[in-house]
Specification:
This protein has helices at 12-27, 30-43, 48-60, 64-77, 85-91, 102-112, 116-124, 128-142, 161-166, 180-189, 200-205, 228-237, 268-278; strands at residues 149-155, 170-177, 194-197, 212-217, 238-249, 256-258, 264-266, 280-287, 292-293, 296-297, 300-307. The protein is an alpha/beta fold and 308 residues long. The strands form 3 sheets. The chain has a 7-stranded mixed beta sheet with strand order 3-2-1-4-5-11-8, sandwiched between helices. Strands 6-7 form a two-stranded antiparallel sheet. Helix 3 (48-60) packs antiparallel against helix 4 (64-77), helix 4 runs antiparallel to helix 5 and helix 12 crosses helix 13 (268-278). The chain starts with 11 loop residues before the first helix and ends with a strand. Bound molecules: S-adenosylmethionine (SAM). The site of S-adenosylmethionine (SAM) has 20 residues, from helix 6, helix 8, helix 9 and strand 2.
Length: 308
């Protein structure tokens, strides 16, 4: 996991109380840790890291209302919400499922970038790019077209694992990612003709109509709650016959939830309906898991859709 985010309060004493509280938290003395964090926030009321940690501890202690209040304070103290307090508010049903704060995603993956591939591929058995590759080959085979693409866009490209899987099938790869550090890693692969640090929806919006014949999103839509705006742009940017291939995590019901791992899980019915509303024709939808959590495959879908 990436290092824990710490935003100094600017008050040395409050920062020290926070450090002691973290020690106590890690030793399992949650009540004492909470007391120290209350002291830290008394000294520095705008101390986002202390409020966020207090929210976590109160949640662990089963103090729901107090945890919600602390997470709200964390977000008030850092309106960009780099800790992702809003995600905990969604998980605790204190707020409706909504978009992920971009600053949270950027901070998370900037911290993650140096260890990302080892953590994901070695520890979590990540296989999203190879699943997408097989699904795209099958979709092309079914319509008797070669799996060769002139221009591909890799949404949430990360360090470039999807471009690595598709390198021989694509002439010109554009990668888009919110995290500058992930983009640096992607640049080092030498596989991308263009790389953009941007939100993937904004990045797509800047692309011309019919400018790509393949759009990939490997383990990236798990950070997007509402697929509709993305799919609408995908349809505009794809050439006729062009493909969208993506993975999502899924769950037993029809809707979109924020799962335990703070990643969205999209119901299969929701995915099918969203593609249909966007005017994309489903070519493949396989129930396959792109990665493990606690050595157990996380339920997922591998989806390929075409612009007709
Ligand atoms: C789990 S990683 C997957 C990276 C890569 N696609 C792969 O298969 O290894 C998710 C990536 O999506 C990026 N991401 C998440 N939400 C994003 C958004 N709204 N716009 C752009 N990138 C986003 C993250 O920064 C991160 O690099």
């Amino acid at each position: 996991m990436p290092a824990r985010l710490f935003l100094s309060s600017g008050d040395l004493v409050a920062d020290r109380r926070f450090e002691f509280a973290r020690d106590l938290q890690l030793k399992g003395d949650l009540a004492a840790a909470a007391d120290l964090l209350v002291q830290a926030t008394d000294l520095a009321p705008g101390f986002a890291s202390a409020w966020f940690t207090l929210g976590e501890i109160r949640q662990q202690l089963g103090e729901h209302a107090a945890a919600v209040a602390a997470f709200r304070k964390a977000r008030d103290a850092d309106p960009d919400d780099r800790h992702g307090a809003g995600l905990w508010l969604m998980r605790m049903d204190a707020e409706q499922v909504s978009a992920m704060p971009p600053a949270y995603v950027r901070t998370l993956f900037d911290q993650y970038a140096p260890k990302f591939e080892a953590a994901l591929v070695d520890d979590l058995g990540y296989r999203g790019p190879s699943l997408l590759f097989k699904a795209v080959l099958a979709a092309r085979h079914a319509v008797r077209k070669p799996a060769f693409f002139k221009r591909a866009i890799d949404l949430g490209c990360g360090t470039g694992l999807a471009a690595t899987a598709f390198a021989r099938e694509v002439d010109h790869f554009t990668g888009i990612d919110l995290s500058p550090r992930m983009i640096e890693k992607a640049r080092a692969t030498g596989l991308y003709a263009e790389l953009e640090v941007a939100d993937m929806l904004e990045g797509l919006r800047s692309k011309p109509d019919a400018g790509a014949d393949l759009i990939l999103a490997a383990d990236a839509m798990v950070y997007v709650a509402d697929l509709a705006p993305m799919l609408k742009e995908v349809r505009r940017v794809l050439t006729a016959g062009g493909l969208l291939a993506f993975t999502v995590e899924t769950h037993g019901a029809d809707d979109v939830i924020l799962g335990e791992g703070l990643r969205y899980a999209h119901g299969e019915t929701y995915v099918r309906a969203s593609l249909q509303s966007a005017g994309l024709a489903l070519s493949q939808l396989e129930r396959q898991s792109a990665r493990n959590e606690d050595n157990t495959p996380v339920p997922g879908l591998v989806v390929v859709a075409a612009k007709s």
